Amino acid sequence: MRLQRSKKAQTVIVMLLLSALCIMAMGFTVYLVATRSLSEEVEKAYRSSLQRTQDRVSSYFKQIDQAILQFEKLPAVESLASPWTEEDGIGLISVQETMLRMQTSLEDVDNIALYRVSSGRLFSTNRQVTAFQDDYLNVIGAFEQTGKKVALLNLTVHDTPTTVYVRRLPVFQTTQDLLMIVHLNQQFFDHILGLPDGKQGTYFILDERRDILQARGALNRTILESEIVPLIKEGRTKAADDLFVAYLPPSYQDWIFGFTIPNDVLFAKIGSLRNVIFAIAGLLLALAVLVTLLATGRLWRGWSELVSLVDDSGTARAGTSSGEPVRPSAPAPDEFRHVYDTVQRIKANRDELQERIKELTPEIKATIFRSLLLKGIRSQQDRDKCERYQLPLAEEGEFGCLAVQIDQYRSLETLYSEIDLYYFKYGISSVIQEVIDTKGSGMVAVWGEDRFMAALTLPPAAPEEAKTAVREAAQTIRDFIRHYFPFTVSIGVSRIRKDYAYLNVSSQEAEEALKHKLVAGKNEVIPIEEFGGETDSPEMPFSFRELENDILYAVRSLDRGLAYGYIDRLRELEGIRTIHYQWLQSRMIDLTLFLYRSVGQSLSRPLAEPVAAEWLELSTLEEWGDWLKTRACDMLIGELEEEHRGLMQRAAEQLTGFIDAHNEEDVRLESCCKALGLPVTLGKQALKEVHEATFSDYLLASRIAKAKQWLRHTEMSIDEMASRLQYSNAQNFSRTFKKIVGMPPGQYRKDRKESRGEG
Prior knowledge:
alpha+beta; 12% strand; 5-stranded antiparallel β-sheet; 5-stranded mixed β-sheet; extended; 26 helices
């Protein structure tokens, strides 16, 4: 007891000291770590933002270059490109109309001009060409001084900032008599760098001479030129202590995109957080003394209870081992006991949940195994399932399937209860799995009321050795059940294969082998090979059953080339004289009926099978191959494609109708498909195949179509249209409308009114 009181006093002192030290250290550490982490993350974020800005600029000028390349293909432009060619008035009209279309298709372009060096004439999209002639002479002179074939000039013309993009034409000829001048308005840099905002820092662009090309933000050019430009020229990555700088390496036109912000603005929040932490630390330090004094007594009562629980547990174990029962004392209920009991219940529930998961895992594996027995393992998705759930399939080596059937199961139902039959089935499954694990690897699953299906994979060996091992495994299962169960089983054995793509074929063969129980009798191992193969000839180059499976897979995959390749394998039978023609003709008919009936099950409408008279007219393998390609594969693939198109068409009609009806709402593909009861992947694929558009593309087109209707038939304002069509503002709506339609909404409404007036 004295030891506990001493420890209690020590604990109070230690807790007070540790609380104070930890809180202060926490505040300082959080500030340092947060500042460093924030600097790194902010630099990454702004570099990413600058990279996007750089990509936008590059993409913008590539768009201009592409438009210019298309422009210079005009016959009139080709004629103007020659200094000795006279100017054609009609051709010049065509040139100016094309330049006007270029201007409307490009954002932030005020004017496009074409200057002919030999004649000194300027052709502009602005009709007052002569008024602009003198203004552009300064631009043309500045461009000629650069000696380049393309340049972006940032000049001051008549006290007005002017930005022009100049390119010599034709681009790919040595004689270049034309200059294409694209006049950009100052909104171009506003869109690229953003509007000035001191709180968000300053974005800037340095030109190829490392002079300030443009800047947007609170910092003036003097600070940028004195603090930032020297830093970039020297290649340093850190600015002065009071500035944060991030910039990219030179890119398009050898420009450098950068960003800078004062550190006191950048770290304003973290500085406030630091002050708050230290304030809280002081408050907590004061509270720690009071809380520690009040909580120490309860803490030690809980600690004593925990010690007593441990002591009681140890005493109980000791009493049990010595044969003397110990009566535990009933502890007084308190908060600690409540928490302790709650934790115990949570632990018990967790253990129970883990056990239930362990119980469900075999059922999941069995379900997946049964599905693979029906279709084989062909896709990467199937192989991923085998790996994820650790199914012992698709491993290297030979494998065979076993179909185990309980003999006279109906009579067992009258002799034993359902519980007895359940344990019998569990015992059979355990016996099969144990034999499989002894011989190699594989698994077993219930395959009906009285049947089990198992796959046994053996290490790589000679085919005869693998065949013998599988039969021995079947005999071991049969003999064990005969000696230790009150009934017997019959076991069908498939052929030996190496490719798990034909797992379904092997399972079908094992079931077919059981049908020979009528001849072989019960309590027998029945290999399918003992009852005749596909041919008596040892020269058979392939398995017809596997060929059927391959062709069916290709047809369902809508792959004509793959299906034709499999059908061409029939030509390998030519020259094998040990094959009887009646047997081969029967196999070809069976193959055809198998394809028709297997595909017909997945169609919504019945599929008419071919007339037998057609088959009697086929006398060679070449004729059979051609018939299978045209009358079987092409027709079946066509039916499946038609079924697929119908499904896509119906889904697209539902989805587009829903979008058109709800295009004034904030809709998403997921919400639309959920309302219509369609899978999201189906809706996405239907829009792509039927309308060659994504969901966003179609929604945009639907909203633009509704906007056109409003512009033609109502007096609704542009602001109201933008709001109803889920745009943040009218500017964004107008810019999008112009990009899609080719003109602003106001111009579209005006043109339609004039058109109706003329009519």
